[in-house]
Design a protein that fits this description.
A two-stranded antiparallel sheet has the order 1-2. The chain is globular, with a radius of gyration of 22 Å. The chain contains 15 helices and two strands. 70% of the residues lie in helices and 1% in strands. α4 runs antiparallel to α5. By secondary structure, the protein is an all-alpha fold.
Length: 353
């Protein structure tokens, strides 16, 4: 994958990690209130888990390690909402979060981003996390390790013997269809369904695997002929591992489908490709840009070269600020616009040139 695309992927991670860090910080500032609200605790745990998973996929091991430590702490608190926390413990967690912020800052600044600096930051944090683990063990009473209940095992077995194979069959049928934006979107929907099945039973590695599959499918450089055998094989093997209560292993072939970004920050010049390319993973959006002359000699022009207007007649495309809102997964208007444009491009594909 070319350098510009790698920088875009890294930029997406930096942006999302920043949002997750803000979520963690706001939850920790009022930690006792957060503990009393199961949904807020789930959000706190998911934020740390998402950073850990994203960092692991991109090979950013220092951030993965710190986020994993935080995730472990939040998991204990999530399982023991009755825990009474004091100001010192809250300060420890916020200081640990500062380590994650520092690593993210290094990632955003190429002059600061090198392995030696990151390793020093990581080494300096180890005593802090050791202290944090000690405090957690003192706050939370020791709980014996309990295997999954027979009822939960039966539920897991039922889902992974019936629902998961059904989704894999649907996925295989889509891989046999022509490679279009609509089929790639449907594949992503199936991945979301498989992700929910894993979250239902706290299968963290299964969820990490699904995230890798989603990244591979989103890359238009990989054809269905390349993706299908690797993805289906990994998912089937993972399904068997869940049923046999064995560790899920992710193949090197699947990992090889995930681009490794170069260290450094993304050039946020608001190119059209930054907006469209993330959501419509196919050559269709490039053809769309060619027709509008937003793409000249295979290169996207910048927004400052386009005359946008928020008061344009009905049927015209919106101002760039609306399009940029698609990057926010909680923006319902952005989701609606994305869906409308995907339908429009599908029709454009089917019309004469």
């Amino acid at each position: 994958m070319d350098s510009d695309k790698q920088k875009q992927i890294l930029g997406y991670f930096i942006e999302e990690a920043s949002d997750h860090i803000n979520t963690i910080e706001s939850s920790l500032v009022n930690l006792q209130d957060t503990l009393a609200d199961p949904e807020m605790m789930n959000e706190l745990f998911r934020a740390a888990h998402s950073i850990k998973g994203g960092a692991a996929m991109l090979g950013i091991t220092d951030m993965q390690h710190v986020a994993h430590n935080l995730e472990d702490s939040f998991k204990v608190l999530k399982d023991h909402p009755e825990t009474e926390v004091d100001q010192d413990f809250q300060s420890l967690l916020l200081t640990a979060l500062d380590t994650l912020k520092e690593l993210l800052q290094q990632l955003q600044n190429p002059s600061e981003a090198n392995d030696q600096v990151a390793q020093e930051t990581l080494a300096n944090s180890e005593p802090l996390f050791a202290q944090l683990k000690t405090r957690i063990s003192n706050l939370v009473p020791a709980v014996p390790v309990i295997n999954k209940s027979a009822e939960e095992l039966r539920a897991t077995t039922m889902v992974f013997r019936s629902d998961v194979p059904a989704r894999l069959r649907d996925m295989l049928q889509l891989f046999k269809q022509p490679d279009r934006p609509t089929s790639r979107q449907q594949l992503q929907i199936i991945c979301d369904q498989l992700q929910l099945m894993g979250e239902q039973f706290d299968l963290v590695t299964w969820c990490d695997l699904i995230q890798l599959v989603k990244l591979a499918i989103a890359n238009p450089n990989h054809t269905y002929r390349t993706l299908a055998p690797i993805i289906i094989k990994d998912l089937k093997q993972a399904q068997e591992s869940v049923l046999s209560q064995q560790e899920i292993k992710i193949s090197a072939q699947l990992k090889a489908l995930i681009p490794q970004p170069e260290t450094g920050t993304m050039d946020r010049d608001d190119e059209i490709s930054l907006i469209f390319g993330k959501f419509i993973p196919d050559t269709s959006w490039q053809k769309f840009g060619d027709r509008l002359q937003w793409r000249v000699k295979a290169n996207w022009i910048n927004n400052d070269q386009i005359n946008f207007s928020t008061s344009a007649p009905v049927g015209h495309l919106p101002a760039p600020i609306w399009l940029a809102g698609w990057n926010n997964p909680n923006d319902q208007e952005g989701e609606e616009l994305k869906e409308q444009l995907q339908k429009f491009i599908t029709r454009l594909d089917q019309s004469p040139s």
